[in-house]
Design a protein that fits this description.
Elements: E1 4-8, H1 13-24, E2 28-33, H2 41-49, E3 53-56, H3 62-76, E4 81-84, H4 101-127, E5 137-142, H5 155-175, E6 180-187, H6 193-196, H7 199-207, H8 219-230, E7 240-244
Parallel strand pairs: 1-2, 1-4, 2-3, 4-5, 5-6, 6-7
Length: 253
């Protein structure tokens, strides 16, 4: 029997790289995305050929979350890894003093609330399953360096990711006795659709030495960290985070 991994926001960018990596690692793959499957047809080709399933849905919808989990368990018999990757940035960047409630609700709704209740649902499913090897399950939250770094023109995003860090702590605390480990990955500047609109800003930061490793991160950089947590390499750690940010988190004088 193969282990099964669920990846939200897995149709492109970081989520797609994660799904491809975990498929290579030998997992059954279930992906949730907001668009129709045809929108990601080329991206998902090799995954679908390998038996992956795709469910269109929104993590903020209770019925969509339930349908995703039920589809995965029906197809594969259980869930062993959840990668909470689905996330959005503000539609427009604006000063903290001008942030709208609508933008806050949208960003926190997807990035924090949606993740919370997806994790809750999957954790309950995992608790019905026996241990598979040395643990019952693994939950991995794709957060951001913005969980700690202030960006006053996208405060709602920072708040949402800081909340995601606390969710990592809370679920790690609750689920460790049950054999379910919870981890957080904090990407820095990763070359995706989300960062393409501010490429000039980040290119300049790379050029002036803000990042110790002077290149853009790739979705594959994040996927390799997910792979390590999803396997059996970290069996004596939970509630922790790893920075995949080119050394951006290092404080220097």
């Amino acid at each position: 029997m193969k282990k099964t991994a669920l990846v939200t926001g897995g149709g492109r960018g970081i989520g797609l790289a994660v799904a491809l990596q975990l498929a290579e690692d030998g997992f059954n793959i279930a992906i949730m995305g907001t668009h129709e499957e045809s929108y990601y047809k080329d991206n998902l080709k090799s995954l679908k050929e390998g038996g992956a399933i795709y469910v269109q849905g929104d993590t903020t919808s209770a019925s969509d979350r339930k349908r995703f989990v039920e589809s995965a368990t029906s197809a594969f018999g259980g869930i062993h890894v959840l990668v909470n990757n689905a996330g959005v940035a503000p539609k427009s960047r604006s000063d903290l003093l001008n942030m709208t409630e609508e933008s806050f609700d949208r960003v926190v709704g997807v990035n924090t609330k949606g993740t919370l209740f997806m994790t809750q649902l999957v954790a309950k499913q995992m608790l019905t399953q026996p241990f598979f090897g040395k643990k019952r399950g693994t939950i991995i939250n794709i957060s951001s360096c913005s969980a700690e770094v202030s960006s006053i023109n996208r405060g709602e995003y920072c708040v949402s990711k800081a909340g995601l860090s606390m969710l990592t702590t809370l679920f790690a605390d609750r689920l460790a006795p049950e054999g379910i480990l919870v981890h957080e990955i904090r990407p820095g500047i990763i070359e995706t659709d989300m960062t393409s609109a501010v490429k000039g800003k980040y290119d300049a930061l790379l050029k002036n030495g803000t990042f110790l490793i002077e290149r853009w991160g790739t979705p594959e950089d994040v996927a390799k960290a997910v792979s390590a947590f999803a396997g059996d390499l970290f069996l004596y750690t939970t509630g922790n985070h790893v920075d995949v940010d080119g050394g951006f988190h290092v404080k220097r004088l």
